[in-house]
Write a structure and sequence with these properties.
The protein has 7 helices and 14 strands. The chain is of the alpha+beta class and 285 residues long. The chain has one domain: q2cbj1_9rhob like domain (Jelly Rolls). Strands 1, 2, 3, 4, 7, 10, 12 and 14 form an 8-stranded antiparallel beta sheet that branches. Strands 5-11-8-9 form a 4-stranded antiparallel beta sheet, with no helix packed on it. The structure holds 2-oxoglutaric acid. 2-oxoglutaric acid binds next to strand 4, strand 7, strand 11 and strand 12. It holds the Pfam family PhyH.
Length: 285
């Protein structure tokens, strides 16, 4: 099972992520990782509560998180796959910590729609809070591939907009379904068909959506891995999702989370490479 990315992370990947806040990464994980994760996903689907926490979107779709806390393939994938390196190199971090994983499986004919949202429930501020969504099945238009609003993270960063408790309470997304038909909408809708072993990496501020699975035969399965990089700080506010096992409200506001058992360091840029991350004064203001 590969420990380094199966294909190189290129300057184009880095630039696409910087500009669009989302990038498609082809064939990053080998067949053995994928087969073992596919098998484990079936075991989770058969008995979700035995493996992790079921989320509000659990029902017609299998939606189970915190799988990596138990010994097994999900945990091995965090510590021994190239997931951390892939994320660190694309987002230009020097250190990557694991935070949260989440399996999403839409069985054939599942009507579950994941409405437009960004991952604004995480208990952090900052910009390096990405989601690496690894395809464990073929993913296409029919079975519910994920769509994204490319570039929207720039608007959120430039205007300080984040909804929910991490924001000021006034920010709302536009109705993206209406904006699809608006030729003057300044952002692009993007999506990719994926094969097992491909992944999409997206920024915390990128709105995303997936429709139901219309396929008669083909389940759509992805493993979302949420990580944090150097530019990520505690946001100890009521209503945000705590790191399981930690008291969120007693964490230091605006301070980078210390690596530890619940937020382990899973990748560090090699010492002989130039640092990628330069802290800005404002980040610590
Ligand atoms: O798998 C999906 O359709 C939705 C994934 C998602 O919303 C997420 O990973 O945050």
């Amino acid at each position: 099972m590969n420990e380094r990315p199966l294909n190189p992370i290129t300057a184009e990947h880095i630039e696409a992520y910087r500009a669009d806040g989302v990038v498609c990464l082809r064939q990053m994980f080998d067949a053995e990782w994928i087969e073992r994760l596919q098998q484990a996903a079936l075991e989770v689907a058969a008995d979700p509560a035995a493996h992790g926490l079921t989320g509000p979107s659990h029902g017609a779709m299998i939606s189970v998180s915190h799988l990596w806390h138990k010994p097994g393939i999900f945990r091995d994938f965090v510590f021994n796959s190239p997931a951390g390196e892939i994320v660190g190199r694309v987002i230009e971090a020097d250190n990557v910590q694991m935070f949260h994983d989440h399996l999403f499986r839409k069985p054939p004919k599942s009507p579950s729609i994941m409405q437009w949202h960004a991952d604004h429930l995480w208990p952090f501020t900052g910009t390096m809070i990405p989601n690496l969504w690894v395809a464990l099945s073929p993913v296409n238009e029919e079975n519910g591939r994920i769509e994204f609003v490319a570039g929207y993270h720039r608007f959120c960063i430039d205007t300080g907009s984040r909804f929910g408790p991490a924001g000021d309470g006034t920010f709302r997304f536009p109705d993206f379904e209406t904006e699809r038909g608006n030729p003057d909408f300044p952002f692009r809708f993007v999506t990719w068909d994926l094969q097992p072993g491909d992944a999409v990496l997206f920024h915390v501020d990128i709105p995303h959506y997936s429709k139901g699975n219309d396929s008669e035969m083909l389940a759509r399965t992805g493993l979302a891995m949420r990580m944090i990089g150097d530019d990520c700080y505690w946001c100890p506010r009521e209503g945000l999702m705590p790191v399981q096992g930690m008291d969120l409200l007693s964490q230091p506001d605006g301070v980078h989370p210390e690596p530890g058992e619940l937020l382990p360091l899973i990748w560090r840029r090699p010492e002989d490479e130039p640092r990628a991350f330069t802290p800005c004064k404002e980040q610590f203001a």
